[in-house]
TrEMBL record:
<keyword id="KW-0233">DNA recombination</keyword>
<keyword id="KW-0239">DNA-directed DNA polymerase</keyword>
<keyword id="KW-0548">Nucleotidyltransferase</keyword>
<keyword id="KW-0269">Exonuclease</keyword>
<dbReference type="GO" id="GO:0003887">
    <property type="term" value="F:DNA-directed DNA polymerase activity"/>
</dbReference>
<keyword id="KW-0234">DNA repair</keyword>
<dbReference type="Pfam" id="PF21686">
    <property type="entry name" value="LigD_Prim-Pol"/>
</dbReference>
<dbReference type="GO" id="GO:0003677">
    <property type="term" value="F:DNA binding"/>
</dbReference>
<keyword id="KW-0511">Multifunctional enzyme</keyword>
<keyword id="KW-0540">Nuclease</keyword>
<keyword id="KW-0547">Nucleotide-binding</keyword>
<keyword id="KW-0067">ATP-binding</keyword>
<dbReference type="InterPro" id="IPR014143">
    <property type="entry name" value="NHEJ_ligase_prk"/>
</dbReference>
<dbReference type="GO" id="GO:0003910">
    <property type="term" value="F:DNA ligase (ATP) activity"/>
</dbReference>
<keyword id="KW-0378">Hydrolase</keyword>
<dbReference type="InterPro" id="IPR052171">
    <property type="entry name" value="NHEJ_LigD"/>
</dbReference>
<dbReference type="InterPro" id="IPR014146">
    <property type="entry name" value="LigD_ligase_dom"/>
</dbReference>
Length: 686
């Protein structure tokens, strides 16, 4: 308890530092000390740093903020989770980064990076500390986030964790979004807009290749920005009150709208891995309701092989005889379970909750060692998803080794892939049902793959079928269970023919595969896709575009199944060849790789009998678990890469979409012989 004594000063009293400005040690004022050349060591260090700064900040008419001592650490401001972005003129909106919150303290050339809880992580991110030191700021306290971004510019928490595990953090960058202290002035009482303006000015010396970046903001429609962020596969947005001071702790001045709901859970036990010894297959989760721990289900994906083993090492010493839950569990929920003392907390993403209070489609994200298990309760605020499959969730397909890791870099297991396809089945099935399929099977995950075009021993004949395509035996599926049976067979890529199994010699779509050569950027690739589109439109055909999940793009053309494969190949070859002739410095239509650097290979060979192209909404057996996704022509320039969307982000995109980019695909089919002859375009039209 505190009480005022005779030295207490009232609200109207003057500043004691202004009235008593002499040093307790020397009895002299700062001015007297400066006149004799005496200066504090830390102040001298700051002056040396300031003298080396390339760009000098503009002197304000009045010093911003109030004079104060550089704090050793400030409890960070935290955002409140909400379902919708606020409206009004007093709000700014920033992209929500998916990384580690970090506070950078700069003092006379010395930099310290502190986590949200105050832990010193400078040694973990030395390149970031060096980049901050290079800014030559005398003293500052900067709030931000350290992330690792994919090729398309999306921050990836799993990539950041992997970088920390391996020590290869060369791709990490620091996004600065607030400035709490600068050059002897405490800025926390200033409005956010003033602090961000000072921050942007302080980062003037950060060049385009710097690891330190200013976190931009918009003051536009927050709900539209949140929807757009989810469509692009981002984490979400943060809404911040423009006129508000910096307030430590959680407040309503900062609000977050997340594309994917995440929640902290108490780890109550685990299921041992069925595919690796001394490893965790899934975690048994709980949340507190008062004094009682309530069972809310399991999370069985999101672990890399290394994380799975590390979790076992941490959990095994905590083994307990009985489950720590308030109520007894049904036999199926506790079969093979290993119970532990409820001392560890993890964070997991989830799509929502079932009617009986169990997590739906949860994926492990990280351990939260600084969170008190007793404080973990259920949180319900999340952005609603509209991507759930309309075909239902029940299936008689059973997985063997559901905890087998198929993409080790992101920890995606067979169970996680099963849940992904169960959720987006309505989107992929129209592209693969009753078509001959070429399947990429990877029994032990990516790196152990082979193509399968015919039936195989052990194939689930209830759901995966063989059929005749002329004289050839092919594999087909007919429904959602067939799709899920492919997961059980470790199929990581699905490549359909451009014709149905009933009419295998009458293609109903053409695919132009644009493969960028070395040195070709995204902007050039988008230009190439639009070139194909314009030429097709000139011939009377509709053109639709999708990412490939790799580097390239697919331009897909619906046609009526009347012409044969010879006509399809002739048509597509002629268009690709004419593009290469018209712009030989941009396009090539030959397979030879020596001709591709700096050019786009317009691959027309997908349009012949037996050839395939990866299906829309199929995963790819590549790092990050990318997905081939139909997109609109308007959004194409903003994607940045053909592997923009992943298993982790696709459901968010589908939930935020107001329509299907390919909704007119089937109705746009034209007979192939309706197209006029492909002629070289006049030079002025290029």
């Amino acid at each position: 308890m505190k009480a005022d004594d005779e030295h207490a000063r009232g609200a109207g009293d003057g500043d004691i530092l202004g009235e008593h400005d002499t040093s307790v040690l020397s009895g002299r004022t700062n001015e007297e000390l400066a006149a004799t050349g005496t200066i504090r060591a830390d102040h001298a260090a700051r002056e040396r740093v300031a003298s080396k700064r390339r760009s000098k900040p503009k002197a304000p008419t009045a010093p911003p903020g109030r004079k104060g001592i550089l704090p050793p650490f400030v409890e960070p401001a935290l955002a409140t989770l909400v379902q919708a972005a606020p409206s009004g003129k007093d709000w700014l909106f920033e992209i929500k980064h998916d990384g580690y919150r970090m506070q950078a303290r700069i003092d006379g050339g010395k930099v310290k990076l502190s986590t949200r809880s105050g832990l010193d992580w400078t040694a973990k991110f030395k390149p970031i500390a060096q980049a901050l030191k290079a800014l030559k700021l005398p003293s500052a306290l900067v709030d931000g986030e350290i992330v690792v971004e994919t090729a398309s510019g999306v921050s990836s928490f799993s990539a950041l964790q992997q970088a920390l595990t391996t020590g290869e953090i060369g791709q990490a960058v620091f996004y600065a979004f607030d400035l709490l202290y600068l050059d002897g002035r405490d800025l926390r009482a200033l409005a956010l807009t003033e602090r961000k303006a000072l921050l942007q000015q302080a980062l003037d010396d950060a060049g385009p290749t710097s690891r330190v970046r200013f976190s931009e903001h918009l003051d536009a429609d927050g709900d539209a920005m949140a929807r757009h962020a989810c469509r692009l596969g981002l984490e979400g947005i943060i809404a911040k009150k423009a006129s508000a001071p910096y307030r430590s702790g959680r407040s309503d001045h900062w609000r977050k709208v997340k594309c994917t709901s995440s929640q902290e859970f108490v780890i109550a036990g685990y299921m041992p891995s069925t595919s690796a010894p001394r490893a965790v297959g899934s975690l048994i989760l709980g949340v507190y309701d008062g004094e009682d721990l309530v069972h809310v289900g399991r999370v069985g994906t999101g672990f890399t092989n290394a994380v799975s083993r590390a979790l076992w090492t941490q959990l095994d010493p905590l083994r307990a005889e009985a489950a720590p839950f308030r109520e007894a569990l049904p036999p199926l929920a506790k079969r093979n379970a290993k119970w532990v003392e409820p001392k560890l907390v993890c964070e997991a993403t989830l799509r929502g909750w079932t009617a009986d209070g169990q997590v739906r489609h949860a994926s492990f994200k990280t351990l939260r060692p600084n969170v008190d298990p007793q404080a973990v309760i259920r949180g319900d605020a999340s952005r609603p998803s509209r991507s759930r499959s309309k075909t239902g969730t029940a299936s008689d397909v059973r997985l063997t080794h559901p905890d087998r890791v198929m993409w080790d870099d992101v920890g995606l297991t067979k169970q996680g892939l099963f849940a992904f396809y169960a959720e987006i089945a309505d989107h992929i099935l129209p592209h693969i049902v009753d078509r001959p399929l070429s399947l990429l099977r990877c029994p032990d995950g990516i790196g152990s793959c082979f193509y399968q075009k015919h039936g195989w021993a052990g194939m689930d004949a209830r759901h995966i079928h063989t059929a005749k395509a002329g004289s050839e035996n092919v594999v087909v599926i007919r429904d959602r269970d067939g799709l899920l049976a492919l997961v059980q067979s470790s199929v990581l890529e699905i490549h359909p023919w451009g014709a149905t199994a009933d009419e295998p010699d009458k293609p109903d779509r053409l695919v132009f595969d644009l493969d960028p050569g070395e040195g070709v950027g995204w902007e050039q690739l988008v230009t190439g896709a639009n070139e194909v589109r314009e030429r097709l439109h000139a011939l009377g055909f509709a053109a639709f575009v999708k990412t490939t999940g790799g580097k390239g793009l697919h331009v897909v053309v619906p046609i009526e199944p009347k012409a044969g494969w010879d006509e399809a190949k002739t048509f597509s070859k002629r268009l690709a060849t004419e593009m290469a002739k018209d712009c030989s410095d941009l396009y090539v239509a030959t397979v030879a790789k020596a001709a591709r650097p700096g050019r786009i290979y317009v691959d027309y060979l997908r349009n012949q009998r037996g050839a395939t192209a990866v299906s829309a909404f199929s995963t790819r057996a590549r790092p990050g678990a990318p997905v081939s996704v139909p997109v609109t022509w308007n959004e194409l320039p903003s994607l940045g890469s053909g592997d923009r969307f992943t298993v982790d982000t696709l459901a968010n995109r589908l939930g935020a979409m107001r329509g299907d980019p390919w909704t007119a695909f089937s109705g746009a089919a034209r007979p192939l012989d309706d197209g006029r002859a492909v002629r070289r375009r006049p030079a002025e039209a290029r």
